[in-house]
Amino acid sequence: MITQEELATTNISMRYDLSPIRNIIGDLSGLLGNFSDELIGAFYPKTVSKKANIVITELVNNAVVNSPDSDSKITLEIMVKKDLLRISVTNAANRSQYKRVRDHIRMINTASDLRKLLADTIRERRKDRLGGGLGLIRLAAENKFTLSARYRAPYLIVDSQIGLGGLS
Amino acid sequence: MKVLAFGEIMDGGNSVFSSVAKVDADLLIVSFGGSIRIDNPYKHLEQYLLELDQLIPQEKIGRIEFDFKELDFCNSNGFYIIMDITEMIIDATKGPITVKRLKDDDWQQETLPILLNVDEPEIEARTTFEEFTAI
């Protein structure tokens, strides 16, 4: 009989391309997040699949909300293997949007105390009920993902990854 | 046990999130279940907040229990509604607070204490976390 440890060495990769963005009227991030949670959770511990769910939800939601071109596409790529979970989301963006995301990620990656950054940002934005900007901090502070951003005009690619050592 | 108030978020005709406030003698139990994924949870939970604000001061509450075990997911927009509910109750009462949460859930371990403001010494002194394993 196969053990849980053997199951958690399964290689899984998924890719979704959706266009045009203007047709996305439902909770796409929820659909993709929940489905991936179920699928990854069939092989890996819930701690891993739940992390994937949160990252997919936050990144896909950001992409849908911030894409300036309603005719463009978004792409979600998910890869899980024995020791790594990697999730990338690609969406249309202009150069200034890319720079804003890049600088935000740079600020997160250089923060000396991520928990404090998360706490301060939540409290700062609470008075206006602003959710924007919290998602990426959350992925790093709460879910321990390493984030990076690239620009392949006209597309912004946000990468997130986490080593699974100790989680599987 | 008496149900004080009930709030829920409906999405596509289904209940996706619910919270119930119950009183058992001097114990106030507030449980949270389901998922908060929508952009504006206040649209669904404003009445619940109002009811809690009106009803809790009328009860003689000595202890509080916040139960997050059934809360599967909370997006960034859900943080503030959790803060509003818990803060209102914490401010309106004086007794010890027990927080039931899942030990393998990142947001319940890392972010929930921020939302509950346990960095505040007075709240920290009142609060005890009980850890559970998801079934």
How would you characterize this protein structure?
The complex is a heterodimer of chains A (168) and B (135). Chain A has one domain: 2-Layer Sandwich (Heat Shock Protein 90), CATH 3.30.565. Chain A contains six helices and five strands, in the order αβααββαααββ. Chain A has helices at residues 4-7, 28-41, 46-66, 95-110, 114-126, 134-141, and strands spanning 12-18, 74-81, 84-92, 146-152, 155-163. Chain A has a five-stranded antiparallel beta sheet. In chain A, a hairpin with a 2-residue loop joins strand 2 (74-81) and strand 3. The longest helix of chain A is centred in the middle third of the chain and has 21 residues, at 46-66. With 135 residues, chain B is an alpha/beta fold. Chain B has one domain: Transcription Regulator spoIIAA (2-Layer Sandwich). Chain B has four helices and six strands, in the order E-E-E-H-E-H-E-H-H-E. Chain B has helices spanning 42-55, 79-92, 106-115, 121-126, and strands at 2-11, 14-24, 27-36, 63-74, 97-102, 127-132. Chain B has a six-stranded mixed beta sheet. Chain B starts with a strand and ends with a strand. Chain A binds chain B through residues 27, 29-30, 45-47, 50-51, 53-54, 57-58, 61, 115, 118-119, 122, 126, 129, 131, 134-135, 138, 141-144, and chain B through 11, 35, 37-39, 42, 73, 75-77, 79-80, 83, 104-107, 110-111, 114-115, 119, 134.
